[in-house]
User: What shape does this take?
Amino acid sequence: MKYVQFPQRDAWTELLKRPSFDVSSLFATVNGVIDRVRNEGDKALRELELQFDKVELDKLAVSQTEFDNAALQVDEKLKNAIRLAHRNIAAFHEAQRFSPIVVQTADGVTCEQRAVPIERIGLYIPGGTAPLFSTVLMLATPAQIAGCRDIILCTPPGRDGQINPAILYAAQVAGATRVYKIGGAQAIAAMAYGTESVPKVDKIFGPGNQYVTAAKQLVSLSDVAIDMPAGPSEVEVLADESCNPAFVAADLLSQAEHGADSQAVLVSTSSKTIEEVQAEVERQLQQLPRKELAQKSLDHSLYILVKDIDEAVDITNAYAPEHLVIATRDYRAVADRIVHAGSIFLGNYSCESAGDYASGTNHTLPTKGYARAYSGLNLDSFQRKMTLQELTAEGVRSIGEAVALMAEGEQLTAHQRAMTIRMDSLS
Assistant: This one.
């Protein structure tokens, strides 16, 4: 990790740049996949699965027998952990239910707002070396609470044609409606446009590799909504001399093992703390099965020494991290000053892994500085806010003249007449 001491503010923008890959270079390839799926449906999906996932599939949908077999294969302790996580995620997202609003804005004028579920959503869950069954819980659980009618899940199968059993078990626990053995850009295309087997969805959620990210961007231009802009995962730890260096190192490495393009940043007011964390990172890195991957991430990660807590807060808000661990004496007071972060972990015992799995908050969060403008996934992500208004005769008398004058001022005669014809009927 690069060690930077007391960086000048005018150098922060360059210092805090994320490692990036321009997915637009993949658009031509991904567009070809999307066009094939849109034009050829299931036939294209089977051929693409054979090409990319090296598996020949008779049926794309997961059968009930496969669900039942998967449940038998998952260790009972892991099942208990999945159920505990689901309960906590459900409890936190249940608390986010929207209460309808009814306001009388003027005499005879009533305005309302209510939440309605997005009817059909699509979830993408990566497979490969790290099957993200936790993400199944994070996506499907709030979707079910929101009242989404259909929860469609796509995930790549292994070469044996089977999906990781823990993914299927989590899908059943969290309430996914249908699961399909489809990976990559072809899965995004299938959910965006529909095929003989896969229904078209209204909004697509979930992480993925660069091809999946490119596909989500392309289909979102005109055909389907997506959750949020996505980039490599990242963590910042803001620490002072009161932190536990071993804990901090573990948090940095837990992010680094996500992938070579992930980033871990330590911002500290103490050079001694940074030195101790450095030693712990080196020691713990050697114990990781994924240490080569983690090392690639650490190569573009940062230790940043700042002069005081005020500068630590400022540089954190400038970075706008996806995950922020605050390991300081007065972590609550520091957290009150953070305005740009996806999710904050307070104090020495609040590791990022807790939020990734089972504390109850959602781990689908804005990356690449998008925490300045985007929220993490929540119940609202699976709902639409719809407004209603009712005017009585009294309401027409109350605001009719203002409406007519404004329409006239914008030279929209039909708009003006829609109100004046009602006003005249009351004369």
About this structure: The first strand starts at residue 2 and ends at 5.
